[in-house]
Amino acid sequence: MIYSLWLTVIGVISYLIGSINWALIISRFKHSDIRKMGSGNPGTLNMSRNFGFKFGLLTFFLDVFKGAIPTLIAFFVFGEEKFVGSEFYIRDFSLYLCGLCVVLGHIYPIYFKFKGGKGIASTIGVFLVAESVHGIGWAAVAVMAIVAAAVFIYLTEFGAMGSFIAITPPAVSGSIRLFLDYGTGSGHMVNGTTIAFHIVCNMLIFAICFFTWFAHRKNIERMLAGDEHPTSFKGMVVKAKAKKLQQKNDAKNSDKTIEN
């Protein structure tokens, strides 16, 4: 019973942390509202398109940490404790429960009338932690998925599809790892309770992916229609360099005016 209480508490806290929208906060510091710019999505790619690659990258890392930190804390809270009558570690369950709560908070934030972003960066943070705490081999899957997504977006300019590439492999590897840890060949005592938690954990992984994919439903429709917004990292870098050069020229011209 006490475990249920603690899981509920950290789940609610994870949701509230997930509801913090860094893209919106950063855009307001720049006296703008990212929800009224570009695609209207308060997330990494739209921030990059409208404020430059640096602010997009800042938003990405803040959202990744937003998913990673609550998930990491949830993992260590329960230590080596197992659910009563089973061989299933509570920490493995809490990983994905809190991960789902963070992602739901990002997509449906209570602070912003339940209208938020699409949850990809926070999901990356969740899966990165979920795999990393189980060993470097599993962590490599998550890292390679992120790299593959970045390369795909750079080469094709399809941001939404790249987002799916970033989260799907670690979701699949997480499900495989759970089977290896708790399946019939794991060496654990496999009883009905252990199997039940095994199934529920897989459902949590599926739910995380489902809600992020569902949040991208309009992007999927535009991709199928050939009208998806391009995400050009090359263009962002060129634009940033041009802006920096313009600022230097403006500063030089200003100094010349003062001298005259």
Could you characterize what this model shows?
The protein is 75% helix and 0% strand. The chain is built from eleven helices and no strands. It has helices at 2-18, 22-29, 44-51, 53-77, 90-107, 120-132, 136-156, 159-182, 192-215, 217-225, 233-259. α4 (53-77) packs across α6 (120-132), α5 packs parallel to α9 (192-215) and α8 packs antiparallel against α9 (192-215). The protein starts with a helix and ends with a helix.
- Gross geometry: elongated
| Helical content band | over 70%
User: What is the alpha-carbon Rg in Å?
Assistant: 21 Å
Q: What amount of the residues lies in strands?
A: under 5%
Mean pLDDT: 86
Which structural class is indicated by helix and strand composition? mainly alpha
Counting copies of identical and different chains, the oligomeric state is single chain
How many distinct helices?
11
Would you count the extended β strands for me? Answer: 0
Low-confidence stretches: none
Spatial separation of the terminal alpha carbons: 79 Å
Give the SSE string: HHHHHHHHHHH
Biggest β-sheet description: none
